Amino acid sequence: MSEAATPAVAAGSRISTTRIVGVAAVALAVSVFVQNAVFGGTGAPAYSDPLGVVLTYHAENRGAFAIISGLETVNMVLLLLFVTALHGLVQRRGGAGEDWSRLAVAAGAACSTLFALFIATQIVVVLAASNLAEPNPAFALMWQLHAAIFALALPALGATFIGAALATHASGLTRPWQRLLGMAGGSLLILAGAGNLAIADGSPLIFVGVLGYFLWLVWLVVTGLRLIRGQG
């Protein structure tokens, strides 16, 4: 390969990586949206609902939860692909924002682990609900653990959001308003996560995190489409 061809190959590789990051971002947003649509469509209980309601829901929606738990596997892979490919893209563009992309990788790994535990505890709740006539202390404990893990996953997602938003902006991949969206949404997630004890006890503080979560999905779609088009 000639030296003259090297820059063209490098540029092609960068464009390919840019599109991989974009596709991963959009695919993650779609998968998470579908997952939450199934949650909402089946009338998933809130953490403040009585345990009897929680037991009935999980006993009656085992099939729907099989879809939900399967999508969580997809989400985990897509999130890790997104943050890892983003870090590589930032490095190829000169390294501006590299520290923030490292934060996104580390926080994304922690977030994936916590959401895996989140789904794992709910799998236990589903299996237990199939064999219980009424909630027992072990069932109640597992449901509270499930809620606590979700609350702790929020700040990990917030750090991922902020790291990714600042990294993409520093590298010239996104516009200033997308950085502000990332800072706002990530801060909401971290703020909600700081009230993890209250959320595990059924506090409406969870809706602060839900708003941050929604902004994360918006940012993923907008940023992903921009990168797929090769903008930035």
From TrEMBL:
Upper classification of the organism: Bacteria, Bacillati, Chloroflexota, Chloroflexia, Chloroflexales
Cleaved signal peptide residues: none
Listed name of the protein: DUF4386 family protein
Keyword Transmembrane on entry: yes
Species: Candidatus Chloroploca mongolica
UniProt keyword annotations, A-Z: Membrane, Transmembrane, Transmembrane helix
Presence of keyword Cytoplasm: no
Positions of transmembrane segments: 20-44, 64-90, 102-129, 141-168, 180-199, 205-228
